[in-house]
TrEMBL record, chain A:
Belongs to the metallo-dependent hydrolases superfamily. DHOase family. Class I DHOase subfamily. This is Dihydroorotase. Its cofactor is Zn(2+). The lineage of its organism: Bacteria, Bacillati, Actinomycetota, Actinomycetes, Micrococcales. CDD domains: DHOase_IIa.
UniProtKB/TrEMBL annotation, chain B:
InterPro entries: Asp/Orn_carbamoyltranf_P-bd, Asp/Orn_carbamoylTrfase, Asp/Orn_carbamoylTrfase_sf, Asp_carbamoyltransf, Asp_carbamoyltransf_Asp/Orn-bd. One of its GO terms (biological process) is 'de novo' pyrimidine nucleobase biosynthetic process. L-aspartate binds at K81, R171, R229. Carbamoyl phosphate binds at R53, T54, R103, H131, Q134, G269, P270. Its EC number is 2.1.3.2. The keyword Ribosomal protein does not apply. This is Aspartate carbamoyltransferase. It comes from Agrococcus sediminis. The gene is pyrB. Gene3D superfamilies: Aspartate/ornithine carbamoyltransferase. Catalyzes the condensation of carbamoyl phosphate and aspartate to form carbamoyl aspartate and inorganic phosphate, the committed step in the de novo pyrimidine nucleotide biosynthesis pathway. Belongs to the aspartate/ornithine carbamoyltransferase superfamily. ATCase family. Residues 3-143 form the Aspartate/ornithine carbamoyltransferase carbamoyl-P binding domain.
C-alpha cells in the first residue's frame, strides 16, 4: 500500500509531496498516484516523527498512573514515534529482565518505538553500579543510562559509570541535583519561595553537579547528557563545557520553556515538578540556549501521576507533569512563534538530535527518500485549549489544562504505519 | 466566600478588624463573658499540628461568641490513618460546619482547603508560611501600647519595629512583615545570615529591610523589638548557629536590654528564657508578652465574628490568593 501526502510544507519550507511505501519514504514521482491513498497535506507542516529521550511510562509498578500502552498512546497523539522510557519503575530497570519486559510491552503496544533506559545504579540507590554491559547487550539494547529522579551524587560512582558507558558507546543521562543542597526542596529558591514559606531548590545545586560531571566526562572520554536543564547558570556551564570540547549534550523540557514559578502561588500540586519551575530570566535563557544549540534537545520528562498524588499539601505532592501530548504546541508557542526556531530547527531538537544521542537509527535524514517513514503532519494554524479529555495517557496532571496552545498534530506515521489520523490515535489494526 | 488566609490586607481592612477587636476586648472587663453573636454556629478547630495556646485562644474566642466549637486534632484522628488533607476537609465540611480554623505543618494547606471545601477558613498557622491572627494580635497589643486609650481608626504610622530570630522559618515573621507595614510601621528583620529568607533584587527580604546585626539595630533605638521563638535543636551547627553563637549575636541579653531604651519587648511565645531574651527582659515593664496573649482572644473573636456572623458586613477578605 502506498500513501501520498500532497502539498505539505516539508520541515516548514518547500511545498512538495511525500510518499510512503513499505514502511519507508519513497520518491513520489515513482508511485502510482491512482492506486495510492492520498492525504491532503496542504497548509500542513511535515516533520519527522518526534523522539522523546525522557519519558516516564511507569510500568512496571506504577500502572495506576500510566502503562506502556497508555503512554505510547499519549506519545502518538503528541507526534512522537519513539520514546525512551526512564528506569525509575518498580522494580527498577536495573536488570535485563525489566528492560526486556518494557521493550516487549512497547512492541505489543506498537504505536511508537519504546527504548528502555537502564539504571546507572542498582535500585537507583546511588551506591553500586548496575550491570550496564548486560543491559546494553540485552534484547532491549540499552544505550541510555539514568538514575533520573535521583542524582548520581557520588563522584566516584559517576566517574565509573561514565567509563563503562564510554566503552559501550552509551550515554549517561544525569538528573543534576546536589542532594545536600536540596533537602526538602519543593520549588525554586527565590523571594517567592520565601513569601510562600516553601523550601527552595537553589540554582547552584544543578549547575555545580553539571560542572563536576563535565570534568568527569572529559577525563573519562565519555558522553554526558544533562537532563532537564532549568537554570541560566547551568546553561552557562554547558556552554563552557561545549567550548572546551567536552562531549556534553543537554535537554530542556517544554514546561521550563513556557512556565515560571509564579504558578506555585496557589499551592496547586499540578505545578510541582523537579527541577522546579524557575524565574522568567531562566525561561528566557533556556529558549536562547535551545535556539543557539547550547541546549541540544527538547525532552518532555512526561511524568504521569494519579490524582491523589497531586491533590494534597504542596510539600507532600508528587513531582512531575505529563507532557507528551502538549510538547509540540509548547515548542511552537515558545520557540517558533517567537522567531527563535524554524520548523527545521524543531525537527532537529525534537527528532534528529535526540535520536542521535540515544543512538536510535532511522532519524538521521528527516523526511528524506529512503528513510523510515516516521512522519508527522501538523496544522500550525490551529489553536485549542488543553482539556483533560484531550490528553490520551492515563493521567491528567498537565500544567497546561485550560491553556490555549497552537498547533494540532493531525496525522502520524510510525515506520509507515498510521498511528494518528485526523487527530485521533489509531488503535488496533495493522499497518 | 470570605476567609482569613493571609495577613496581607489593605490598611482600612486591618484597622477595621483591630477596631472590632477593641469592641470584643471590652468583654474582658465583664463578669459574664458571653455574647450571643454566633449562637447556632459551629466552628471546627482542625489542628494537624500540636498547639496549646493558639487552639485554646480560638476555642475561647468561639465560646465567648456562643459558637459551638469542636476541636479535631491530627493525632489519633483519621488524618493519622492516611486520610488526605482534602478528604478530611471535605468530610468535616459535609457535617455542616460553618467555619474551619486550621493549623497545619504544610505551607499553603489553608489556602488549598479554602479552595476545596467552600466554607470560611481561618489560617491558624501553616508551616513556614503565615500566622495572620498572630500578626493581628501583635498589631493590636502594640497599637494599645503606642496610642494608649485613643486607638480607634489608627495604624502604626512611623513606628519602627525589629523582628529578631529565625526569620526564614517563621510564619509569625512573614505575617508581621505583611501586616505591620500596611499599618504604616517600618519593619526590619534581624537574624543570623543563614536564618534570613532569600533576598529580592533590591536587597529586601519578605519585602522589608533585613539586618544581620542586632547591635546595629538596637543602636537605631527601635520602638519595639519582637523576638521570635528559635528552635536551634532542629539544625544546629548546619543551618542555625549554636546556642552560644546565637546568644552572643541575637539574644536580648541584660546588657542589650540596658541599651534598648524604652522600646516595647514582644514575643509570640512560647519563650525560651535565656535564649531569645533574658528573664529580666521578659518580665520587665516594657514586655507586652501577656498583653499579646489577652489580645489574641479579642482578635480571634473579631475574625470569627467577621467571617461567620450573618449580620456583619465582612471586614475580612481572603487577601492575596
Amino acid at each position: 500500500m502506498t500513501t501520498l501526502l500532497t502539498g505539505a510544507r516539508v520541515l516548514g519550507g518547500e511545498v512538495r509531496d511525500l510518499a510512503i511505501e513499505g514502511g519507508a519514504l519513497v520518491d513520489p514521482a515513482t508511485v502510482d498516484r491512482d492506486a495510492a491513498e492520498t492525504v491532503d497535506a496542504s497548509g500542513l507542516v511535515a516533520l519527522p516523527g518526534l523522539v522523546d529521550l525522557h519519558t516516564h511510562l511507569r510500568q512496571p509498578g506504577g500502572e495506576q498512573a500510566e502503562t506502556v500502552a497508555t503512554g505510547v498512546r499519549a506519545a502518538a497523539a503528541g507526534g512522537y514515534t519513539c520514546v525512551f522510557a526512564m528506569a525509575n519503575t518498580s522494580p527498577v530497570a536495573d536488570t535485563p529482565a525489566v528492560v526486556e519486559q518494557v521493550h516487549r510491552l512497547g512492541l505489543e503496544a506498537g504505536l511508537a518505538t519504546v527504548r528502555p533506559i537502564g539504571a546507572v545504579s542498582v535500585g537507583l540507590a546511588g551506591e553500586r553500579l548496575a550491570d550496564l554491559g548486560m543491559l546494553a547487550g540485552s534484547a532491549a539494547r540499552v544505550t541510555v543510562f539514568s538514575d533520573d529522579g535521583h542524582c548520581v551524587a557520588d563522584a566516584e560512582l559517576m566517574r565509573r559509570a561514565l567509563e563503562h558507558a564510554a566503552a559501550l558507546d552509551a550515554v549517561i543521562a544525569q538528573h543534576a541535583q546536589d542532594p545536600a543542597l536540596t533537602r526538602g526542596a519543593v520549588m525554586h529558591e527565590s523571594p517567592l519561595a520565601a513569601e510562600l514559606g516553601l523550601t527552595g531548590w537553589p540554582s547552584a545545586a544543578e549547575a555545580s553537579i553539571v560542572a563536576r560531571d563535565a570534568m568527569l566526562a572529559e577525563a573519562a572520554g565519555a558522553r554526558l547528557h544533562v537532563c532537564h536543564v532549568s537554570t541560566v547558570e547551568t546553561v552557562e556551564v554547558v556552554r563552557q563545557a561545549k567550548a572546551r570540547g567536552i562531549a556534553i549534550t543537554a535537554e530542556v523540557t517544554p514546561h521550563h520553556l513556557l512556565l515560571t514559578e509564579e504558578l506555585v502561588r496557589g499551592y496547586d500540586g499540578r505545578f510541582k515538578v523537579n527541577p522546579p519551575l524557575r524565574a522568567d530570566r531562566d525561561v528566557q535563557a533556556l529558549r536562547e540556549a535551545l535556539a543557539d544549540g547550547t541546549i541540544d534537545i527538547v525532552a518532555t520528562d512526561h511524568a504521569p501521576h494519579a490524582p491523589e498524588a497531586k491533590q494534597t499539601a504542596f510539600a507532600d505532592a508528587a513531582f512531575g507533569m505529563v507532557g507528551l501530548e502538549t510538547a509540540l504546541g509548547v515548542v511552537q508557542q515558545s520557540m517558533v512563534e517567537t522567531g527563535l526556531l524554524d520548523w527545521a530547527g524543531v525537527a532537529r531538537v525534537m527528532s534528529t538530535a535526540p535520536a542521535a544521542i540515544g543512538r536510535e537509527p532511522g532519524y538521521d535524514a528527516p523526511l528524506a527518500i529512503g528513510s523510515p517513514a516516521h512522519v508527522v503532519l501538523v496544522d500550525p494554524g490551529a489553536r485549542a485549549v488543553v482539556e483533560a479529555s484531550s490528553l490520551k495517557g492515563r493521567s491528567a496532571n498537565s500544567p497546561f489544562l485550560g491553556v490555549e496552545l497552537p498547533g494540532r498534530v493531525l496525522h502520524v506515521w510510525h515506520g509507515g504505519r498510521r498511528t494518528v489520523a485526523d487527530g485521533e490515535v489509531v488503535t488496533g489494526g495493522a499497518a | 466566600m470570605k476567609h482569613l488566609l493571609t495577613a496581607a490586607m489593605p490598611r482600612d481592612e486591618a484597622v477595621a478588624l483591630l477596631d472590632l477587636a477593641e469592641d470584643m476586648h471590652q468583654i474582658q472587663d465583664r463578669e459574664v463573658k458571653k455574647l450571643p453573636a454566633l449562637r447556632g454556629r459551629t466552628v471546627v478547630n482542625l489542628f494537624f499540628e500540636d498547639s496549646t495556646r493558639t487552639r485554646s485562644s480560638f476555642e475561647i474566642a468561639g465560646k465567648w461568641l456562643s459558637a459551638d466549637v469542636i476541636n479535631v486534632s491530627g493525632k489519633g484522628s483519621s488524618v493519622s490513618k492516611g486520610e488526605s488533607l482534602r478528604d478530611t476537609g471535605l468530610t468535616i465540611a459535609a457535617m455542616g460546619v460553618d467555619g474551619v480554623v486550621v493549623r497545619s505543618g504544610s505551607s499553603g494547606a489553608p489556602t488549598q482547603l479554602a479552595d476545596w471545601i467552600g466554607r470560611p477558613v481561618v489560617n491558624a498557622g501553616d508551616g513556614t508560611h503565615e500566622h495572620p491572627t498572630q500578626a493581628l494580635l501583635d498589631a493590636f497589643a502594640l497599637r494599645r501600647r503606642i496610642h494608649g486609650g485613643a486607638v480607634r481608626g489608627r495604624g502604626l504610622d512611623g513606628v519602627r519595629i525589629a523582628i529578631v530570630g529565625d526569620i526564614a522559618h517563621s510564619r509569625v515573621a512573614r505575617s508581621n512583615a505583611l501586616l505591620l507595614p500596611a499599618l504604616g510601621a517600618e519593619v526590619t528583620v534581624v537574624g543570623p545570615p543563614s536564618l534570613l529568607p532569600v533576598a529580592a533584587a533590591d536587597g529586601t527580604r519578605l519585602g522589608v529591610r533585613a539586618e544581620t546585626s542586632l547591635d546595629r539595630v538596637i543602636a537605631e533605638r527601635p520602638d519595639a523589638l519582637m523576638l521570635l521563638r528559635v528552635q536551634l535543636e532542629r539544625q544546629a551547627g548546619r543551618v542555625a548557629p549554636s546556642a552560644g553563637e546565637y546568644i552572643t549575636g541575637w539574644s536580648l541579653t541584660d546588657e542589650r536590654l540596658a541599651r534598648l531604651g524604652d522600646a516595647h519587648i514582644m514575643h509570640p511565645g512560647p519563650m525560651n528564657r535565656g535564649l531569645e531574651l533574658s528573664s529580666r527582659a521578659a518580665d520587665s515593664d516594657a514586655s507586652t508578652i501577656l498583653e499579646q496573649v489577652t489580645a489574641g482572644v479579642s482578635v480571634r473573636m473579631a475574625v470569627l465574628y467577621s467571617l461567620l456572623a450573618s449580620d456583619h458586613p465582612s471586614a475580612v477578605d481572603g487577601g492575596t490568593r
